[in-house]
Amino acid sequence: MEKSDKDSIPSNEAIIDELTKDLENSCVKSEPEEQSTQGVSSEPDFDCEEKPPEKDFESAIKDCTKAVELNPAYLKAYLRRAQLYEQTDNLDQSLADYKKILELDPGHSEAHHAVRRLPPLIEEKNEKLKEEMLGKLKDLGNMILKPFGLSTNNFQLDKDPSTGGYSVKFNQGNT
């Protein structure tokens, strides 16, 4: 790594280049396939469809974050981090990075596509989490109410569309 003259600290460009190499090496090398006789290179290619171990994602995200800290206008680091966040199902962070890419380069097509594609995925993920949370709360409620001969089925929740709040009604006949 190149060092700048001041205090033997690596230059920003050298750090960014090294981080870029690390990110490029995070893809998994695949074995070269049998090639036809059409003069196609037998070099091994890189298959980024295979997911590296989770710690590799975390490391790559940290590397991208460091590159962005060193150079806040480093578009490639934002793009790679956004892709890594999406692969690790951190869709909110991915969307934030894609929006930052559009601030830096308003014509970036991949970022435009992602900004349109991710919000419905985020909403779907949040709905699944909400349903899972409500199911677990219902199970907890049933565990607490069971000694009293009640269940969460004895209670009806009605959502008020104007405020988004809920009102609770008790129905003794439902068990």
Automatic annotation (TrEMBL):
Organism of origin: Cotesia congregata
Pfam families, per the entry: TPR_19 (PF14559)
TPR repeat residue numbers: 75-108
Name assigned to this protein: Similar to TTC1: Tetratricopeptide repeat protein 1 (Homo sapiens)
Domain of life: Eukaryota
PANTHER family membership: TETRATRICOPEPTIDE REPEAT PROTEIN 1
Protein keywords: TPR repeat
SUPFAM superfamilies found in the cross-reference section: TPR-like (SSF48452)
Region (Disordered): 22-54
Any coiled-coil regions, as ranges: none
Keyword hit for Heme: no
Annotated PROSITE patterns: TPR
InterPro entries: TPR-like_helical_dom_sf, TPR_domain_protein, TPR_rpt
